[in-house]
């Protein structure tokens, strides 16, 4: 039977590499690339069809950072498919990243140097802003848009896979400020929230046959990392990065390597997976790829609280949207 796989943020980086890997694994697959920019989505589709000429590759317009776009895209998915075998929640942003060079050089000479290279703990901040739905942009894109998509498509779904990060950190997240309006680590906070949400979804939905997993792709050269340092600089320090890889294995560096855990999960029986584990894509010093589960630092109770808060926010945004639509209808009649 033809399996249907929907991937958000599939037009570049890790998402596009995953598409390549999945088509190599199963040429009968129906892939749906859910992207906000249709020109880039078309280019990704053409690239995939060049290497897999008989592949079934569909495109879907989806801006996960916009409530209206998620709701419209979900309607379109329901009209097109009667089930989604895998939903990869991969789209993500890190706007205006700032590297704290002082902390970086201090970290280089500390006991935590390996941890710093693996997680970027203490050396990276971002500047977030409100989007047109009145939500924090990073929260809306990396977490809430995906949550809404899951809620809309729930009856069609069986497997969810989140592209999280080693940068997800408990101390960056606050339940009182889940959108991270106050701090400067919105990326870390949103990724920690996705880890929590995955656990909560497993607790609430496994009995109904829905399973969620989280992965970390390692440090990968993509548009996201080129936003932190320019691509020529990364190319310049590539020999140093290969050296660091010997000590951490988290410097996967290429999108193909970064997609290792996403691909590996595609081959696993969901019941054999650990809901409290994050599955890491790792690459050894000799260039061998493998997947390793590592326990996440999460409370089950807190994950349930986050789930309830997201349901509340969902109600609020739906109410706001229907009020706005009603206002528009009234002014159209006038
Ligand atoms: N690169 C790395 O080292 C790491 C990356 N990650 C995670 O991996 C995931 C993929 O990122 P990566 O491949 O690195 O970076 P890219 O920037 O190459 O890919 C991000 C993808 O997400 C899409 N996207 C962004 N915002 C939206 C939106 N509002 N609606 C729909 N699609 C959107 C982008 O589309 P567009 O082209 O339109 O911008 C792009 O296709 C992210 O979740 C990221 O946080 C995690 C750990 C490390
Ligand atoms: C010599 C050398 C390799 C310098 C690079 C220093 C930093 C720019 C990187 C060190 C750890 C990196 C890292 C990320 C970005 C780049 C670093 C801060 C991520 C935050 C990218 C996105 C993620 O989701 C996790 C990554 C963790 C490690």
From TrEMBL:
One of its GO terms (biological process) is cholesterol biosynthetic process. The keyword NAD applies. It catalyses: 4alpha-methyl-5alpha-cholest-8-en-3-one + NADPH + H(+) = 4alpha-methyl-5alpha-cholest-8-en-3beta-ol + NADP(+); 17beta-estradiol + NADP(+) = estrone + NADPH + H(+); a 3beta-hydroxysteroid + NADP(+) = a 3-oxosteroid + NADPH + H(+); zymosterone + NADPH + H(+) = zymosterol + NADP(+). It is a single-pass membrane protein. InterPro entries: 3KSR/17beta-HSD, NAD(P)-bd_dom_sf, SDR_fam. Its EC number is 1.1.1.210, 1.1.1.270, 1.1.1.62. The chain crosses the membrane at residues 224-244. Keywords: Endoplasmic reticulum, Glycoprotein, Lipid biosynthesis, Lipid metabolism, Membrane, NAD, NADP, Oxidoreductase, Steroid biosynthesis, Transmembrane, Transmembrane helix. Gene3D superfamilies: NAD(P)-binding Rossmann-like Domain (3.40.50.720). One of its GO terms (molecular function) is 3-beta-hydroxysteroid 3-dehydrogenase (NADP+) activity. The keyword Transcription regulation does not apply. Signal peptide: none annotated. It is an enzyme of class 1 (oxidoreductase). Binds to the short form of prolactin receptor. Belongs to the short-chain dehydrogenases/reductases (SDR) family. ERG27 subfamily. This is 3-keto-steroid reductase/17-beta-hydroxysteroid dehydrogenase 7. It comes from Champsocephalus gunnari.
């Amino acid at each position: 039977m033809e399996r249907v796989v929907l991937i958000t943020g599939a037009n570049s980086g890790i998402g596009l590499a995953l598409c390549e890997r999945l088509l190599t694994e199963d040429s009968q697959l129906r892939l749906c690339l859910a992207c906000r920019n249709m020109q880039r989505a078309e280019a990704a589709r053409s690239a995939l069809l060049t290497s897999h000429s008989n592949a079934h590759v569909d495109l879907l317009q989806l801006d996960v950072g916009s409530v209206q776009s998620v709701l419209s895209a979900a309607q379109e998915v329901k009209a097109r498919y009667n089930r989604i075998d895998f939903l990869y929640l991969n789209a993500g942003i890190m706007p205006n990243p700032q590297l704290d060079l002082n902390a970086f050089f201090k970290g280089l000479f500390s006991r935590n140097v390996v941890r710093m290279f693996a997680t970027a703990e203490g050396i990276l901040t971002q500047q977030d802003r409100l989007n047109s739905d009145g939500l924090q942009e990073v929260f809306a894109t990396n977490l809430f848009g995906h949550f809404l998509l899951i809620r809309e498509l729930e009856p069609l779904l069986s497997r969810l896979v989140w592209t999280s990060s080693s940068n997800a950190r408990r101390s960056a997240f606050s339940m009182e400020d889940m959108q991270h309006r106050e701090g400067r680590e919105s990326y870390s906070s949103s990724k920690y929230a996705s880890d929590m949400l995955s656990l909560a979804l497993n607790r609430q939905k496994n009995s109904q046959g829905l399973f969620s997993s989280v992965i970390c792709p390692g440090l990968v050269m993509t548009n996201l990392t080129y936003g932190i340092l320019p691509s020529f600089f990364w190319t310049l320090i590539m020999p140093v990065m290969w050296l660091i890889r010997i000590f951490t294995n988290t410097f996967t560096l290429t999108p193909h390597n970064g997609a290792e855990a996403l691909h590996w999960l595609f081959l696993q029986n969901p019941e054999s997976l650990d809901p409290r584990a994050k599955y890491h894509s790792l690459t050894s010093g000799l260039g061998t790829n493998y997947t390793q589960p590592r326990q996440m630092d999460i409370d089950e109770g807190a994950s349930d609280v986050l789930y309830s808060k997201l349901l509340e926010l969902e109600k609020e945004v739906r109410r706001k949207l229907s009020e706005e639509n009603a206002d528009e209808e009234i002014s159209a009649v006038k």
